[in-house]
Each structure stands twice: as structure tokens, then as C-alpha cells.
User: Fold this.
Amino acid sequence: MVDITGQYMLNLLLNGLLIGVIYALMALGLTLIFSVLGIVSFAHGEFYMIGGYVVYFVLQRFTNLHPYFAVLIAGLVTFVIGFIAERLLLQPLAKGEIERPAEYAILITFGLAFFLQFLMIAIVGPFPKKAARFFDLPEISTDILVTTATTLRIFEVPLSGNRLIAAVTAAILISATIFFMAKTWLGRGLQAVSQDRQAAAVVGINPLKMNTLAFSLGTMLAGMSGAVLVAVFSWVPWVGVPASGKSFIVIVLGGMGSMPGAVLGGLILGVVESLGAGLIPDPGRALAYKDAIGLLIFALVLLIKPTGLFGRDL
Amino acid sequence: MNLEVRDVVKNFGGLQALNHVSLSIDKPEIVGLIGPNGAGKTTLTNIIDGVYKPTEGEVWLNNERVDKMPPYQIARRGLGRTFQVTRAFRRMTVMENMLVPALALHPGANRREVEQKAYEVLEFLTVEHLANELGRGLSGGQQKLLELGRLLMLDPQFIILDEPFAGVHPKLQEAIYSYINKAHSDGKAIILISHDMDSIFTLSERLVVLHFGAVIADGDPAKVKDDSAVIEAYLGKDEEEDEDA
Amino acid sequence: MKRSPVIWVLIIGGIAITLALPLILRDKQYWLFVATQAYFWAILASSWALLAGYAGQFSFAHIALMAIAAYFSGIVGRDLGWSPLSGIIIGTLVAGLVGLIIGLLCLRLRKTYLALFTIAFAEIVRLAINAELDFTGGPMGLYLEPLIQTTSYVPYYYLILGLLLGSLAFMYALANSRFGLFFRSIREDEEAAAAMGVNVVRYKIMAFVVTAMIAGLAGAVDHHFIGFIAPSELIIGRMSLVIAMAVIGGIESLIGATLGAIFIHFSLEWLQQIPIPAALMPRIVEFKPALENLGFALTERAIQTNAWRMVGFGILLMVTLRFWQNGLIYPIIQRLTRQEAQAETVAKRQPAPVEETAAQERSEE
Ligand SMILES: Nc1ncnc2c1ncn2[C@@H]1O[C@H](COP(=O)(O)OP(=O)(O)OP(=O)(O)O)[C@@H](O)[C@H]1O
Ligand SMILES: [Mg+2]
Assistant:
């Protein structure tokens, strides 16, 4: 039995927020895919998994490389894989060549997940890998904030430096994505297609190209989420399965296709999971049920309001 | 027989698709239902057949309130409809399409007899050679006929046809005409929704005009045709629209 | 419908071989075991084909329902001393009940949402089984009493073969009755089916309950044979395998899915280097020290070689989906059965005066 003090709650809350930022980044990718292609990719977690492995191997091979450079490489690799997958598997769907589109979209992305997962087992083997810490925290010591190389205490609440770095990196990437969507020509094109394909086509945007772009960018965001987390968690080829689950939960919470909704949903999921797990009295159970909390909320939201908490009504 | 729509309102969010619509049919007649695009004709069909629940008002079928029932129960109580955009069961053969309503209504029916009857219906509609084709293999017009065929198998007392002629070749339109005439002489009441004024005025014995979700005229087709409100609201405007298109 | 002689030769030949298999494999007990498991997978794949291919409900909870029945049977046996037989019955009923609840909950959910919901359900079941150590044994699994006191695989072989043939016969009858027709009409267009008087709610739920019970029955019986079940059997990879079997066999065909399952299960066993299904990979890692104590050399390389075969099936699955949506096996069956049947209907069903309408059709195009 743990003491439920204010400080303990704050600890849970902050840790939840840190992990929530990563959920948000991942779900942002899935949201982009859903809003432009109109499908949910069941292979989303596999791109997350691949992103993590890319960083691990790049940093292992080039020890002096800046970790952020490895994260960018992971983004590039997952972008390219997503690009190829979209061209080969999803483009026929957009062209209307597939007879049962909804079923096809579910099954083909499921097949892709299956394929990528076993491909990674075959290539890198099944045993856990973990990348080294990206950087040390600067040593600070003030009344409210005390840091060492690996931990940070704020108002006496200890946080893992690794997680903090991952969360900050993810937050930077989220901001970059939002900037891209709002301010660049391509981002606006994507938004136009997600709102009205026909109208977008009339003003000269090629919806098929936008599909490819959205999917590749979506998988890239998943890959980069994995890339920033590989220094926090140990990495196995099926690490993407729960990660997919988290992104489904978040996009349903955030209202299928809404980007601000996805960010908010990610933070909510992180906090709810953290609080839920921290407040279940039996610690063994708490650990085991941590993932179930999100799933339960997810199932309830699907049943009660399938368009999500923050979604528009269909 | 009796079908009554009582003061029905249907809102979609802020949009009022039906505005206190009342309509009563108590004899086997052909009722033309016309109105500009978006007037609420299909919405009214969906209300009667139970797909939508009215925001206000009631629907009664043979002295029983049906607006809270699921569509299949309303179908079993003798109301059949076709869809404006055809909805054949695409990966089932024409014959299987025909069996669905018959077996849903009469679970114990002898399969061979039902098939025999379905075959006769297809013959009547001049599409018996398609019996073993898949629904998705049919042309648009053939799909319309298939929907009529399914209705004949359901054999409802009240029939709502939503744009049965749209996009159908004149040759196949003849089959639809003979369907409507046969159903009429068999004592069915038919609501015919169409933008094709020739068919409407040839077939209907009574004409109902919807405009912005409200009934603006209901009565003898010849009189409704000359009604100034109708001309202003619909007939005149519709011709202009046609020219635009 | 009359079938061509070829198909009869194949059917009779197939049945003869399956019945004689224990004799043929007298000296290869391991392969008899593989065959038994292939039939178990075939029951899962064909019942999933009925649910997804016929009724259009793409549920990912099938494996979870199978496992729920097995766990229930095992737990009432361990804690209440029930016999395996009564355990299997109650397990099957519980699976049906859970199927009923899923069906009810999912009435409003279409396609993608149904898939998401059932994945969440299956994961919750797996996590709960993992967590509730006292009931389920947690990650270490649960032991089940043998259903038949024997050291031979032969009785189980015939038992599970019987189960497969029985459930196939039942599902075939169902699919060809009016229920099958209603299932398919719901799959095609719920609203149109309802307008034709089909009680959509009832038949959707019926599809869930019937297929849940079949999966549950197979799960309970098979695990009283294997003697052990663990939560790692519920991982999503195993559900993928069922789906791959049905898709490659032919999702709209019971017999296609059955043959797909048998084909894939045998190929996987035949291609594999170590006798552990690769879908259980996470568990291998979990139990690596224990397994190594038992003398299994779990080198990284062995597992990697093993994973390549799954990569191959992943590619096969995607290619099948992309180019042969009706599966690889079903079209072959269709070709063998169709020709004569078509000739027959054409002859019988087209009376003389068709020229006119045919001409009309042509003029229309
Ligand atoms: N499910 C719905 N959700 C929101 N609005 C709807 C819905 N169905 C219909 N409407 C709106 O209700 C109004 C009436 O539509 P309805 O389809 O009934 O018109 P209609 O008379 O059948 O037109 P048409 O001649 O084009 O078929 C339209 O403004 C339409 O946009
Ligand atoms: Mg309409």
C-alpha cells in the first residue's frame, strides 16, 4: 500500500504528462493518416518499432553521432518505408481498384504489421536491446530544481532524465508538425484534401500524391516517436503492438482526425494511465492492469460516442 | 388499409428537413410526391420506413404506431421501399437477392416454391436471364429492376418508390411502368417520387408537393399543376434548373 | 447444385486420407500431432470466415473467445473438481455468452470501429488473465486435465477431426439456409436488408454467438489435449495467423478457410527449425532461461531463421489480399465445381424466347 500524498500525485501526474507527449506524437501521425486516407493503419506501431531500431543501430555504429541526427535518420527510414508501403498497398485503394475497401484497409495494414514484425525478428533477433542515454542533463542545483546527469527533481518530485529528454524532443517534433501543417504549402494541401478531396482536386492538388505524403509523414512521426523512446525502454520487435494500441486509444479519444484532439488525447491517456496505475492498491495488479485502463476507456468511448470525445458528430 | 404521417418534424442538427408534414393514404392509389432537390422527399421515405426517427410527430400504419419500430418490423407490417441510390446486395446473385425478403417474411416457406415465384417475378420484369448474375454485375437500370423484384417478393401493401426512373433506359422503364400498374391493380398503395413530370402526371392519381420540408399542395394532379404556389415554388423553378444543368 | 466428378474424387480422396492418416503416420507421431493442431486451427479459421466473410463482422476477438472457454474449463476443473467434459460444456457456453455480449455491444459499430473494439477487448482479456494469478495462473499458465486417459495421439486425432467435420457440417448447413442468406445480406447492406424485413440485430448477434461457441468448443477440447494454456496464446500475432489462414484460403468459403488453415499450419511446421510456433516468440524470450535449463538451445540464429518463414507468410498474405481477394484456395474449388453447375442452370433456366430481351440488353449498351 502506498501513501497517497500530494507529492506522490504530482509525481504520477508529471510522469504521465511526459509519456503522454510521446503518445501525442505517435497519434498525430495516425491522425494525419486517418484524416487524409480515411483509414486506420494497424501497422502504425511497427513503424514506431522500426524507428527505435534505426536509432539503436545508428548510434551503435557511429558512436560519436549526435542522437538527434539518428532520430532524423529514423524519420527518413520510416518515411521511405511508409512511402513504399503506401504506393504498393494503399494506392490501389484510393484509386478505387479494391472491391471491399474497408475490409481491405484493415487486413492489408494488419498484414503489413505482421510482415514488418517478423522481418525485424528475422533481422535483429528477438532479444531486448536498449540504446544509451541521449545526453546527460546539465547539473543544476537550486531550491526548486535539482538535477544530476540522469535525474531531475522539481519541487522534490523526482523525474527520469531520459524520459524528460524524450518528452522534450517529442514536443519539439509536435511543434514542427503543427507548424508544417499550418504554415507550409504542403501542409495546407494535406488539410485541404482531408476536408474535401474533390474540391482539393479542382484547385489542382493531386489527392493521390497527398495520400502518399500523408501516409509517409504519418509513419515518419511514428518512427520518430520510437526513435526518441529507444533510450527509455528496452526494444523488442513486438514493442509496436502496445504502441499501436495507444495510438488507437488516443485518436478515438481525440476524435478521429482532429490534430489538436490527438495531442490532448495523448496527454490525457498518459496522465490517466499513470494515475490509474499509481492508485491501484495492489502493486502487482497495478503493473499488469496499467495498459488495461486505457483500453477500457477506449472501449467505453467507442461504445458511447464512436466519434470520440472531442470529435465532431458525423 | 391506412398509412398516416402525423405532423412530423425532422431536424438534422440545425437543418429542418421536414417541417410539420402530415400525409394520409387510406386507399390503393398512386400518390406522386414531388419537390425540388433537398425538399425532404427521401427524408420522408426514411421516416416512414423507420430508418430515421422523427424529431416530432408520429407515423401510423394500419392503426398501429410504427415510428418507434425498427425498419424490419415496419417492412413486415406491409411497407416496402426502394432506394434512390440503388442498394442491391452486390455480392449475392439476383436470385439470392430475391430470396432474402421472401424468406425473411415467411421463414417456413418451401425454398423451391419461393425460387419458382422469384423466377416468375424476374420474368415479369424481363430480367430472368440475370438470375444467376451477381448484383454487382448489373447495370444501374437492372439494379433498379432488381429492387422492384425484391419488393414484389416482399409483397407490401404500401410501396414507396424513390426515383425509380432515374437513369433507366426507356425500354426498361416500360417494365417499371408495368410494375406500377400491376401493383396498383393488385390493390397496393404507391408513393411515387420522381423528377420526371411526364411519368408523374401519367401515373399519379393524387399529387403531393414538398417544398423546404413542408407540404405546399396535396390533391388532384391537374389542380395542383395549376396551383400558383406550386408553380412559383417548384414547377417553374425546376424548369429553369433543368436548363442550367 | 450438382457437382462435377472431379470434386467428388477430391472430397472422397481427402476424407479417406484424413481417416487413414494415423496409419500412414504410424512412425511419425509428431506429424500426427501437427495434423491434430492443423484441424484445431481449421475450426478457428473456418468459424472466423463465417463471422467475417459471411456476416461481415471483422472481429479480432476470436482467439480470446477460444481461450476464455479453455480457461473456464480448466478453472472449474481445478477449483471445483468438474470433469473435463462438463468443463468443456460450460466453457463453450461461457464463450457463447461473451460472444453475445460482444455482439450486443458492437451493434452500432461498423468495420474499422468493430476491429478496434474487438482488439481492445482481446487485449483486456489477455491482460486480465496475466494479472489474475489466483484464478488463471498468470503468465505461468494453467494446467488442464486430459480429456481422454491415453498416451497415444490417435484418439485425440479422431476427436478433433470429428469436431472439425461436425462444425463444418453445421456451419455449412447454416450458411446454406436462410440464415446464411441473411448474414450475407447484412454484410452487403444493413439498411437494405432491414428494409427487406431482415431482423439485422438478431442475425448479427446469432453470427457472433454461434462462431464464439464453435471457437470456444474447439479451444476447450484442444487444450484438454495439450494440457496447458497460457496468456501468451492470446497475443495478437495468433489472431493474425487465423486471419492469414482464412484470407489465403478464401474468406467467403468455409472449406477454403479450412484448407487454408491446414495448408499454413503444415507449411509452418515443415519450414520450422525448432518446434515452437514463432507466433509465441515473446514467450520464448520470457522463458528463455527455463527452456535452456530443459535443454532447448535457443540461439538467436535459430529463432531468426524461424522468423523468416513468417516473413514469407506475411508477404503471401499481403499479395493475396492485393491480387486475389477471394483467396488462393477458394477460386480453385470454385473452378472445379462451377463448370458443370453453370451448364446445368443455363440449360434449365433459360426458356426459348430470350432472344428479344438479350437483344434489348445489347442495344442498351
Ligand atoms: N442524414 C442526414 N444528415 C443531415 N442532413 C440530411 C440528411 N439526410 C438529408 N439531409 C438534408 O435534408 C434535406 C432534405 O434531403 P432529402 O434527401 O430528403 O431531399 P430530397 O427531396 O430527397 O432531394 P432529391 O430530390 O435531391 O433526392 C437536405 O437539405 C439534405 O441535405
Ligand atoms: Mg431524394
